[in-house]
RNA sequence: GGCCCAUUCGUCUAGUGGUUAGGACACUAGAUUUUCAAUCUAGCAGCGGGAGUUCGAUUCUCCCAUGGGCUACCA
């Protein structure tokens, strides 16, 4: 049988990173089996609908490379499907109209809780006489439609990850199928749609395990074949709660903006709760499709690690051909205001020179903004401590900078010439490499950390580099006067 | 309260009735080097607790603890 899965988000906001993982797992399973993967928008709660959410979700899925088959399905377009199904259940005596007010439902719930009964509905309307029902209807009283859940026995559920799960029917509720606004609840819509769409594997988060038995009962009541169920473990934050903004980024859009590559996110997410063997860490989408196996998804929920994602992102950043890297990085240079939009030929060349030097030093493309600042702006302030190794004399650093200035003036600013000149200088003076290079680095970059010195100097060019060194000398001279720092 | 799910290094995980319990990230040290990073090498670190089954349990069973979910006319 052809495998058919679906991702079924509700349009209540941006796609959560955990949602993307669920979508990924469903997608991989479908593709692995040469099946189909669909997108279904669960927009049955009109009060929670967020404008633009559908587009945002689609964009996130496409970004990750999860292309759905056919057109997305909107539940709000298929209301008659659900009411017909409900009508059928009503006629067959498998569901009933409930006229209880929300106020009464609240009261009942509280009372039952006080009496330590399983909280929920007391099934008052389950046994209404036809006369009572007709009377309510004649009055035009609002009602919901509830499923008549068997009062005894047990419902046995199967989950592909967890195996068999049993529920006593007396702990189950007469769930609402159709709300009083005649929209279906999740339960009803899910069962009708997954049957109608011929979904073979119902995939969703593990928060749905508790309602699996009533879903199975509903499938049976409607005479539908029961699909396979797969409940994915949840993605947690460091605090053990569901990952949220306070953990850092939580929605896919956030990760996109920070400059994570889809390859990295997909690779990381796939291995968060699923594993292939005890060795392989790097997976392309094709490999994931090839190797993915639902039964190897782990049962326990997983804590999201930004560190490990960063590691993956760094890896994929380094794998990227320079042209691709440029395309992806350019927006971040523009956003930081470092180059014009679109960039001039000169600016493009400049970025192309920078990229190979920084790609091993950044985790996310967003880091470009802070890491590359010195390539576009000369340092405004210096920390004198940066110029010297601990305990060394700042004056000496200044002297070294002064003495090196004329030498650099005579040097071509290409990597080879710079290296030659500075090596000669070091040999001649006997100054340690560190004591010579660090002051130059800090003068030019404003930081102790930078790409290679020769590379940095050659990218910045002679004029700019010399200007910065002179500036630094001036800055240090005056700061020494002002603070009286001598060492 | 009721029902349900889960539990191997800090984190993600592999694994088996007998293993030096393996890998990855992070961390530490070393190598390299002009700093940082990258890279390479090495190291640190784990089977929640208690019974039972067994010659032997991390692995099987039960109980407990802890964490999580559901208990809406939300999904």
In words, what does this structure look like?
With 487 residues, this protein is mostly helical. Helices cover 48% and strands 10% of the residues. The strands form 5 sheets. Strands 1-2-3 form a 3-stranded parallel sheet, with helices on one face. The chain has a 3-stranded antiparallel sheet with strand order 4-5-8. It has helices spanning 17-32, 53-64, 79-91, 102-114, 130-139, 186-196, 212-221, 252-258, 262-270, 285-291, 306-319, 322-335, 345-358, 367-371, 373-376, 394-409, 415-429, 433-445, 453-460, 462-483, and strands spanning 4-7, 36-41, 73-74, 95-98, 144-147, 154-159, 163-168, 176-178, 201-205, 228-232, 235-236, 302-303. The protein has 20 helices and 12 strands. It has 4 domains: 4-71 and 235-306, Rossmann fold; 77-186, Alpha-Beta Complex (Glutamyl-tRNA Synthetase, domain 3); 321-375, Helicase, Ruva Protein, domain 3; 384-483, Arc Repressor Mutant, subunit A, CATH 1.10.10.350. Helix 2 links the parallel strand 2 (36-41) and strand 3 (73-74). The structure holds one RNA strand of 75 nucleotides.
């Amino acid at each position: 049988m052809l495998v058919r899965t679906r991702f079924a988000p509700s349009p209540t906001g941006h796609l959560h990173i955990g949602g993307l993982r669920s979508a990924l797992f469903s997608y991989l399973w479908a593709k692995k089996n040469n099946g189909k993967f669909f997108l279904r928008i669960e927009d049955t709660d009109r009060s929670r609908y967020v404008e633009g959410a559908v587009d945002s979700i689609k964009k996130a899925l496409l970004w990750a490379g999860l292309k759905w088959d056919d057109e997305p399905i909107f539940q709000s377009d298929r209301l008659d499907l659900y009411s017909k199904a409900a009508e059928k259940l009503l006629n067959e005596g498998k569901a009933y109209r409930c006229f209880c007010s929300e106020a009464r439902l609240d009261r009942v719930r509280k009372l039952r809780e006080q009496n330590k009964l399983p909280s929920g509905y007391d099934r008052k309307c389950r046994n209404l006489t036809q006369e009572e029902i007709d009377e309510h209807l004649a009055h035009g009283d609002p009602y919901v439609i509830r499923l008549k859940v068997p009062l005894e026995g047990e419902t046995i559920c199967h989950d592909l990850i967890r195996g068999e799960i049993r529920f006593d029917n007396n702990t189950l509720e007469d769930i609402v199928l159709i709300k009083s606004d005649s929209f279906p609840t999740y339960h009803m819509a899910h069962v009708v749609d997954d049957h109608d769409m011929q979904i073979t594997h119902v995939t969703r988060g593990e928060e749905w395990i508790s309602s699996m038995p009533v879903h199975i009962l509903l499938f049976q009541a409607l005479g539908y074949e029961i699909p396979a169920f797969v409940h994915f473990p949840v993605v947690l934050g460091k605090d053990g709660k569901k990952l949220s903004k306070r953990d850092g980024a939580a929605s896919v859009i956030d990760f996109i903006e920070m400059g994570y590559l889809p390859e990295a996110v997909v690779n990381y997410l796939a291995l968060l709760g699923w594993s292939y063997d005890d060795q392989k860490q790097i997976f392309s989408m094709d490999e994931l499709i090839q190797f993915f196996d639902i039964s190897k998804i782990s049962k326990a929920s997983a804590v999201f690690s930004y560190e490990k994602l960063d590691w993956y992102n760094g890896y994929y950043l380094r794998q990227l051909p320079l042209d691709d890297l440029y395309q992806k990085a350019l927006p971040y240079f523009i956003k930081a205001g470092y180059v014009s939009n679109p960039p001039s030929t000169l600016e493009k060349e400049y970025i192309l020179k920078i990229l190979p030097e920084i790609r091993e030093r950044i985790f996310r493309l967003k880091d470009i903004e802070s890491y590359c600042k010195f390539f576009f702006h000369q340092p405004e302030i210096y920390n004198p401590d940066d110029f010297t190794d601990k305990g060394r004399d700042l004056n000496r650093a200044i002297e070294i900078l002064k003495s090196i200035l004329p030498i650099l003036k005579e040097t071509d600013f290409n990597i080879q010439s710079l290296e030659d000149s500075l090596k000669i200088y070091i040999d001649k003076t006997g100054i340690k490499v560190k004591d010579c290079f660090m002051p130059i680095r800090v003068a030019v970059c404003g930081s102790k950390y930078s790409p290679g010195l020769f590379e940095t100097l050659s990218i910045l060019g002679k004029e700019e580099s010399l200007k910065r060194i002179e500036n630094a000398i001036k800055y240090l001279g005056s700061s020494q006067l002002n603070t009286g720092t001598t060492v």
